[in-house]
């Protein structure tokens, strides 16, 4: 997924950082230069480059960074790997499904020795094939629910809903407020923001967190009546006119902040996005009925075709270390996957509150990220079609997606 997270807080990483175990990954020379490619752009790129600066100072490596959009990253790396070429010395993949496929195809170097499961918020099995672990975890994006501005709620005497009926009543109230285009913002990148809100409606169904896991594992069908209900609930909101015009997810933040689309289902990067002029005027609520939160991790991989394996491994170990992740955590809008980053690194109460709530609910993988293509591409396409024609029958949608789901799991 491509995020355009804007900087809000600019702080200096406190204290001298001492990274552990760097000498064990190959003894890269101080003259080694490596390249990294990922989907971070604009000010989010600046956030990552702050991490790069820290790692260069700690390791003596020279690291260059090339951002790519999600589609380009996924397609170009696949083409390069099939030709035996490394797109970059380090490739950051947003989907564990793709990591497993690349690992199984022999395209990636094993990285399991660079991180301990006990020290991170994920398991080796997530990116393992036949016992080999092919990626290392960096930041963890949490997708908690609908963000809103407390100042807007206070001005119009609105309250967070405690059940789904109250949620519908809230949407009706917001819809009647002057200058509101629609209560719910519709963000679009390649289709992924629509997938996030759709997954929330799946998760709010009976035993939704297990349903999501079963879909990923191939133990449930996409034609399950609970999935159908989730799509029908989304359709009902569309037909009531509660979803806004579809816009680029970054531009949609501007409409959100202007209170034209006051509720926006987005992730933990929201407080640091550029359009958010005052992150203290932010809060969120989970979709009523939801007892789980989606968590998505950025996975660092090293292509098997790089000529700088040792240096790439050294860079990855330093980047994903507690000190490396703390650099971005202090800059805002970032949730570390390292369990050893201090809570003091969070400058905003909302970020600290979000991580605390994540500890109290079920965390589930992102559905389409975990599965990867061909399901992910078809999921995004079908959702874009639903947003364009919300009165269409949902049954053919779920049937089509189930066919692709079974193909994806079968692979």
From TrEMBL:
Gene3D superfamilies: Periplasmic binding protein-like II (3.40.190.10). It holds the Pfam family SBP_bac_1. It comes from the Archaea. Keywords: Transport. PROSITE patterns: TAT. InterPro entries: Bact_solute-bd_prot1, SBP, TAT_signal. Belongs to the bacterial solute-binding protein 1 family. PANTHER family: ARABINOSE-BINDING PROTEIN-RELATED, OSMOPROTECTIVE COMPOUNDS-BINDING PROTEIN GGTB. This is ABC transporter substrate-binding protein.
């Amino acid at each position: 997924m491509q995020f355009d997270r804007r900087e809000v807080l600019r702080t200096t990483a406190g204290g001298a950082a001492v990274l552990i175990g760097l000498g064990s990954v190959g003894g890269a020379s101080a003259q080694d230069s490596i390249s990294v490619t990922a989907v971070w752009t604009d000010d989010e790129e600046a956030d990552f480059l702050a991490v790069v600066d820290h790692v260069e100072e700690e390791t003596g490596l020279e690291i260059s960074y090339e951002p790519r959009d999600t589609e380009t990253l996924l397609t170009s790396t696949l083409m390069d790997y099939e030709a035996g070429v490394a797109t970059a010395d380090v490739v950051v993949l947003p989907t564990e499904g793709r990591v497993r496929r690349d690992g199984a195809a022999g395209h990636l170097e094993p990285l399991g020795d660079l991180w301990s499961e006990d020290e991170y918020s994920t398991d080796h099995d997530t990116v393992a094939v036949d016992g080999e672990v092919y990626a290392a975890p960096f930041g963890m994006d949490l997708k908690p629910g609908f963000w809103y501005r407390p100042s807007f709620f206070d001005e119009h005497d609105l309250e967070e809903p405690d059940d789904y009926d109250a949620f519908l009543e809230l949407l009706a109230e917001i819809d009647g407020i002057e200058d509101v285009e629609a209560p719910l913002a519709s963000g679009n990148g390649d289709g992924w923001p629509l997938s996030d809100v759709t997954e929330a409606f799946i998760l709010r169904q009976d035993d939704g967190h297990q349903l999501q896991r079963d879909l990923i594992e191939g133990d449930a069908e996409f034609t399950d009546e609970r999935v159908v209900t989730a799509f029908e609930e989304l359709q009902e909101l569309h037909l009531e006119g509660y979803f806004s015009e579809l816009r680029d997810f970054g531009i949609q933040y501007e409409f959100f902040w202007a209170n034209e689309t006051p509720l926006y289902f987005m992730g933990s990067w929201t407080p640091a996005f550029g359009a958010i002029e005052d992150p203290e005027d932010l809060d969120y609520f989970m979709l009523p009925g939801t007892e789980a939160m989606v968590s998505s991790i950025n996975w660092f991989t090293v292509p098997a075709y790089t000529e700088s394996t040792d240096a790439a491994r050294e860079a990855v170990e330093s980047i994903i270390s507690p000190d490396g992740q703390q650099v971005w955590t202090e800059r805002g809008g970032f949730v570390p996957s390292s369990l050893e980053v201090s809570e003091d690194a969070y400058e905003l109460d909302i970020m600290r509150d979000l991580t605390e709530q994540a500890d109290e609910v079920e965390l589930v993988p992102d559905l389409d990220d975990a599965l990867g293509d061909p399901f992910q591409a078809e999921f995004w396409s079908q959702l874009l079609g639903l947003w364009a024609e919300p009165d269409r029958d949902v049954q053919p949608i779920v049937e089509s997606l189930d066919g692709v789901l079974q193909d994806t799991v079968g692979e």
